[in-house]
Design brief:
- The chain has about 220 residues and is an all-alpha fold.
- Helices cover about 70% and strands about 0% of the residues.
- It has a single domain, classed as Glycerol uptake facilitator protein (Up-down Bundle), CATH 1.20.1080.
C-alpha cells in the first residue's frame, strides 16, 4: 500500500509540475519559461521524487517504466497492475487540479498539454515521426534508468541522471508530440480534452510501453554474465 501511495503522489507531482508549467508558465507574457523551462520542470519533478520516494517504491511514476523495469528483472509481475493503476489515478488527479487552476481566470483548457501527432503535433509532425520519437526516447530513458540504478552504478546519482535524461527527452521531442514517454501523463490530459486526444491516445500508450519493454530486454542482456 505504501508503494502504491508513493506512486500515486509521485505521478501526481510529475503531471502537476510538468504539465502545469506548460499550461501556466510556458507562454506567460514577457516572462514565460518557454520550451526549455517546461523541459526542466519535467526533469525536476522526476529528480525530486526520485530522492523523496525512490527508496519506497522505486519512483517509477510511469507505466512504461514499470513494464521496462519488470522486463529487466527488477520487479515481480504481481507488482505491475497496482503500480500502473496508482500512476494513472495520480496523473488524473493532477489533471483535475490543473483543470481547476487553468480555468480559474475564465479561459478554457485549450489543448491542455495533451500529446498528439499530425495536426495536433506542435510542429505538425506525422504519425510515423511520432512513433519513432516516442519509441526511441522511451527506449533510451529506460536504459538510463536501469543503468543508473544498477548495483554497480555510482551510488546516489541515479536521480540526477534520470531527471536530466527526462529534461533532454523533452528538449528534443516537445515539438514532435508534446513529449509523452509516459502513458499515465498522456491518459490524464486526454481524458479532459477528449475528441482528438482520445483518438490519438493509443500511440502514447502502445509505443512507450514497447520502447520500454525492449530496453528492459536489452539491459538484461547487457548485464548477463
Amino acid at each position: 500500500m505504501k508503494k502504491n501511495l508513493s506512486e500515486f503522489i509521485g505521478t501526481f507531482w510529475l503531471v502537476f509540475g510538468g504539465c502545469g508549467s506548460a499550461l501556466l508558465a510556458a507562454g506567460f507574457p514577457e516572462v514565460g519559461i518557454g520550451l526549455v523551462g517546461v523541459s526542466l520542470a519535467f526533469g525536476l519533478t522526476v529528480l525530486t521524487i526520485a530522492y523523496s520516494f525512490g527508496h519506497i517504491s522505486g519512483a517509477h511514476l510511469n507505466p512504461a517504466v514499470t513494464i521496462g523495469v519488470w522486463m529487466g528483472g527488477r520487479i515481480t509481475a504481481k507488482e505491475i497492475l497496482p503500480y500502473i493503476v496508482s500512476q494513472i489515478l495520480g496523473a488524473i488527479a493532477a489533471a483535475g487540479v490543473l483543470y481547476i487552476i487553468v480555468t480559474g481566470n475564465g479561459t478554457d483548457i485549450g489543448t491542455f498539454a495533451a500529446n498528439g501527432y499530425g495536426d495536433h503535433s506542435p510542429g505538425k509532425y506525422s504519425m510515423i515521426a511520432a512513433i519513432v520519437t516516442e519509441f526511441v526516447m522511451t527506449f533510451m530513458f529506460l536504459l538510463i534508468i536501469l543503468g543508473s540504478t544498477d548495483d554497480k552504478a555510482p551510488k546516489g546519482f541515479a536521480g540526477i541522471a534520470i531527471g536530466l535524461a527526462l529534461t533532454l527527452i523533452h528538449l528534443v521531442s516537445i515539438p514532435v508530440t508534446n513529449t509523452s514517454v509516459n502513458p499515465a501523463r498522456s491518459i490524464s490530459q486526454a481524458l479532459f480534452v477528449g475528441d482528438w486526444a482520445l483518438a490519438q491516445l493509443w500511440l502514447f500508450i502502445v509505443v512507450p510501453v514497447a520502447g520500454a519493454a525492449l530496453a528492459g530486454v536489452v539491459y538484461k542482456y547487457l548485464k548477463a554474465e
